[in-house]
Design a protein that fits this description.
By secondary structure, this protein is α+β, with helices and mostly antiparallel strands. It has 3 domains: about 10-205, Aldehyde Ferredoxin Oxidoreductase,  A, domain 1, CATH 3.60.9; about 230-430, Aldehyde Ferredoxin Oxidoreductase Protein, subunit A, domain 2, CATH 1.10.569.10; about 440-605, Aldehyde Ferredoxin Oxidoreductase Protein, subunit A, domain 3. The protein has 26 helices and 17 strands. The longest helix is centred in the C-terminal third of the chain and has 21 residues, at about 525-545.
Length: about 600
């Protein structure tokens, strides 16, 4: 489709059971209505009937999705989305990541790569342009994602980019990640889906480039955005990284502690980036095509779980807020060396730190309540966290149960355990205490992939004068809708969310960028409608997968029990339900959350094109 700018006009449908590749054309109208990234990914999942598949079956599709901005001059645009049905939630899942894989993948001449089928044995999918070859990879079985990626690039050449799973993905851990260049498509179990297809890695290389509608204007816009991205809106990420909010959250009573029993942690200062950088020599890095530079890399001291000596040399780990929260305060661990080592181990195994920490913390409370027989698994014990992670990676003993996530573990235990399992729709809650940040609580409850601060961003309202963070009301619903819609656009373009504070008129500036990229005369109002369509398409996928209104809630702990260290932080079930009804009505859905027939017909007409 030579008239398209920013796109190749279709996706590669790849059967990994035999290496067959088919180019499936997409109309300009569909690309305009769903943009790319997450938006295009959910469209492809509806088109490929993914909701009808078991998440870990050979038939289940998994898509690597690019966007019209990939390969262009804009800062933070080297991103891709991995979209699939989650084995953790059995609902839609999308994970975003930054790396050269996005640029190399788009050069294959496709706007997305959709994998079907399963290889007969552990294999590597090598995609050179539009030619696919399956190569045996049995020698990489059980090898960490980092080591496997290094070996593959040495073998095939560094003009390839690789997306790789670790041992956890091979063994079907339901929150296994896909890794690439030290970055991870983390939440929801994409690594387990790739592992179920017997694919250790996907290697991509190509020479097909897209054109831009107005290259000179786009370059000028890119230079302007790069300058702004180095300003005060991103300074805290550059100076301290994403963990910069740790102490602020602790002061506000919003730092989840000991499986969400408290909102502040006595050892928070020991884990803060301010303390870590005082006695550790850190380095900084940036993602590919990024001018912000939020990656803070710290040394990791050799640790062991107590089972056996650890003779690995000291290593490094990229420090993120979610890693610190989930493997530190949530598990009651204040020893920084243990938390850094646990984060590194998650990277080596290829597992999501939030779900891993959330499931381990839940299990720790179950041990305290004598619902689980594992006396070694105690709050505050860093070596116990490391041991649990090792067991999860091997799926041995208790690790086999922990590998299923907190919801399935709670269902197995029974005895009311589900009431304090820290999850929504099966996805573990990230580092924002819902009772202290109640607009965020609404965002968690209604989120299509479960509890997720990256797909909602409603905490921004809690930290503003627009809402009372300790008093949820129906008035909060439009605020939650606004942040969710904006996230849907950013995740479909795809740009880094750290840029959100850089734009002074988000929709107008994004429309201008897209006009110079694609040539389309796009208005801010059209972008707002596009965002609403993408969010509705996510809901439609979940409805097809078996969603019911009862899923849009929080665990009973958050609706019955105030925080132990702040009795004012209390959220009632009636307040949450009233806000959910208002959220659904703001979106034009039924009060229970069902899409109207007209919306279903329009979205499925696109999918059946």
């Amino acid at each position: 489709m030579p008239s398209l700018h920013g796109y190749h006009g279709g996706y590669l449908r790849i059967d990994v059971s035999n290496g067959r590749v088919e180019f499936v054309q997409l109309s300009a109208a569909v690309l305009r209505r769903y943009l790319g990234g997450v938006g295009l990914g959910v469209h492809l999942m509806l088109r490929e009937r993914a909701a009808e598949c078991e998440a870990l079956s050979a038939a289940a599709p998994l898509a690597f999705v690019f966007s019209p901005l990939v390969g262009g001059p804009l800062t933070t645009s080297a991103k891709f989305a991995v979209v699939h049905k989650s084995p953790l939630t059995d609902r839609l899942n999308d994970s975003l990541a930054s790396s050269g894989f996005a640029i190399s993948g788009k050069k294959t001449g496709a706007d997305a790569l959709v994998l079907h089928g399963a290889a007969a044995s552990l294999s590597v999918l090598v995609l050179d342009g539009r030619r696919a070859v399956l190569e045996p990879a049995t020698e990489l079985a059980g090898v960490s994602a980092r080591e496997a990626e290094a070996a593959l690039l040495k073998k095939y050449g560094r003009d390839f980019s690789a997306a790789v799973i670790g041992p956890a993905g091979e063994r079907g851990v339901r929150y296994a990640t896909i890794s690439h260049s030290g970055r991870h498509a983390g939440r929801g179990g994409a690594g387990a889906v790739l592992g179920a297809k017997n694919i250790k890695a996907v290697l991509v290389r190509g020479e097909r480039r897209c054109t831009w509608s107005n290259p000179s204007s786009l370059t000028a816009l890119a230079k302007e955005l790069s300058v702004k991205s180095w300003g005060p809106a991103t300074a805290k990420y550059r100076e301290l990284g994403t963990a910069s909010n740790l102490l602020a959250f602790n002061r506000l009573g919003a730092l989840p502690t000991r499986n969400f029993q408290a909102g502040s942690f006595a050892g928070a200062v020991d884990l803060s980036p301010e303390t870590l950088e005082a006695d550790r020599k850190k380095t900084r890095q940036s993602c590919v095509a990024c001018t912000i530079g939020c990656e803070h890399i710290y040394p990791v001291k050799a640790q062991n779980s107590g089972d056996a000596p650890n003779d690995k040399p000291n290593d490094t780990v990229r420090l993120e807020y979610e890693n610190l929260f989930a493997l530190g305060p949530l598990c009651g661990v204040r020893d920084a060396d243990s938390v850094l080592a646990a984060s590194r181990l998650c990277d080596e195994l290829g597992i999501d730190t939030v779900s891993a920490g959330g499931t381990i913390a839940f299990a720790m409370e179950c041990v305290e309540r004598q619902l689980l027989d594992a006396p070694w698994l105690r709050f505050g014990d860093g070596s116990a966290v490391l041991k649990a992670l090792e067991l999860i990676g091997r799926r041995e003993g208790l690790g086999d149960q922990l590998a299923a996530g907190s919801r399935r573990l709670a269902e197995r235990i029974g005895q009311g355990a589900l009431e304090f399992a820290p999850q929504v729709k099966g996805l573990e809650i990230p580092g924002y205490e819902p009772r202290a940040l109640q607009t965020m609580a609404l965002g968690f409850a209604v989120g299509s992939r479960g509890a997720d601060h990256n797909r909602s961003g409603a905490y921004e309202a809690d930290f503003s004068e627009q809402a009372d963070r300790r008093a949820l009301s129906p008035k909060s619903a439009p605020l939650a809708v606004e942040t969710e819609d904006r996230a849907a656009l950013i995740d479909s373009l795809i740009l880094c969310k750290f840029l959100r504070g850089v734009f002074t008129d988000f929709h107008s500036e994004i429309a201008h960028i897209l006009q110079n990229t694609t040539g389309w005369e796009i208005s801010p109002d059209e972008l707002r409608e596009t965002a609403r369509r993408i969010v509705s398409a996510k809901k439609l996928f979940n409805q097809q997968a078996g969603w019911s209104p009862s899923e849009d809630t929080l665990p009973q702990r958050f609706l019955q029990t105030p925080l132990s260290d702040d009795p004012r932080a209390s959220l009632s079930a009636s307040s949450l339900q009233a806000a959910i009804v208002a959220y659904n009505q703001t979106r034009g859905w039924s009060p229970e959350g069902w899409l109207p027939r007209r919306a279903v017909d329009e979205i499925m007409a696109d999918a059946n094109e």
